[in-house]
Amino acid sequence: MPMNQQAPPPASAASEIASEADFSLIRYAQCWEDTDVLLEALAIEPGDVCFSIGSGGDNSLSMLSRDPARVVAVDLSPAQVAVIQLKVGAFRSLEHADVLELAGITKSTRRLQLYRQARSSLSPFARSFWDARPEVIEHGLSDAGKFEGYFALFRRYVLPLVHSPKQIDALFIARSAEERRRFYEERWNNWRWRALFRLFFSRFVMGRLGRDPRFFRYVEGGVASRVLARTRHALVDLDPSSNPYIHWIVFGRFTDHLPHVWREENFAAIRRNLDRLELRVESVEAFLERAQDRSIDRFNMSDIFEYISEAASDAVFENIARCARPGARVAYWNMMAPRSRPPHLASRLHTLEEESRRLHDRALTFFYGAFRIDEARASP
């Protein structure tokens, strides 16, 4: 599994965010994007060459289950690459139930023992990183990120001020859409919910405790009101009883429903293709600038465009259009900052509007304002 062991390159015009946010810590121990939606949007075919934002690694690993020729996962953060390497080592060295224990998906009293079994599969960099953090291993990897810690604060200190444990449990009873609407309006959406939600998910609090203040540089208007509206969508239009992401936010664990990467039926296919995953510590911009023309079939861009200016976003799209093979697909999320394929690339990247809306409406990671899919045209 090739890996760039060096620190990220110095900030430049090709890496706008690198010098303005701290990438030394684990920001995301999990990928907070609906992987099932992503995989349907990308429609990966056997033999495809795929590009993926690294983050917590879940999406990149899940992409392996579709039998691509390569998945190149890129992240500015050495810490994030260490997270992915530990997951790769677990898939390579352990059985499915043991992987869930080490990752913190299920309870365990032997995570350090499991880590020692997986350790030999890690690079020297990843070994050194995790050897220095036994307490993180013991507690469970999936709780290790700043973003997961933010949800833990909400779970421990905010939600108990809004609802009783009995009421919280009632949220997860399976109901019809109309029954969910009535429950939300009559029993859940009280003044404490609205007031404390708007405070906790404000730009100020989220920037300092959950993400990074720099990540909101290009966001205009209120943040909390938009997240509140999207949360209502998740609790009313979608079914929270089967939503693993809401279960984790509220309880700090998954129950009967797991994200794609952790399901037993996907384990063998992911493990079989681990050698097709390449991890690189560098910026998305730098990687795409030097990628060969027409060399990539699928692009998982996560919400990268959220953090960069419109001009920088357009430059990334230019490189995607150049690198994309005919029929290639590009999938990405907008949370607060609206970003899309620039109009001047319409002849090269066609936006699949109907499919984008359909998949966004059913995405279980509900807090994104939009999901977009672009497809490369056969002739520029």
Please explain how this structure is put together.
- There is one protein chain.
- This protein is of the alpha/beta class and 380 residues long.
- The chain has a domain at 154-251.
- Helices cover 47% and strands 11% of the residues.
- The chain is built from 18 helices and 7 strands.
- A 7-stranded mixed β-sheet has the order 3-2-1-4-5-7-6.
- β1, α2 and β2 form a beta-alpha-beta unit.
Write the layout of secondary structure elements.
Elements: H1 35-42, E1 49-53, H2 58-64, E2 70-75, H3 78-93, H4 96-103, H5 111-119, H6 124-131, H7 134-139, H8 146-162, H9 165-170, H10 177-188, H11 191-200, H12 203-210, H13 224-237, H14 244-251, H15 264-272, E3 277-281, H16 284-290, E4 296-300, H17 310-323, E5 324-334, E6 349-351, H18 353-362, E7 370-376
Parallel strand pairs: 1-2, 1-4, 2-3, 4-5
Antiparallel strand pairs: 5-7, 6-7
Succession of helices and strands: HEHEHHHHHHHHHHHHHEHEHEEHE
Task: Give the termini distance in whole angstroms.
Answer: 34 Å
Mean pLDDT: 90
Binned, the helix content reads 40-55%
Strand arrangement, major sheet: 3-2-1-4-5-7-6
Given helix and strand content, the structural type is: alpha/beta
Rg value:
20 Å
Basic shape? globular
The counted number of beta strands is: 7
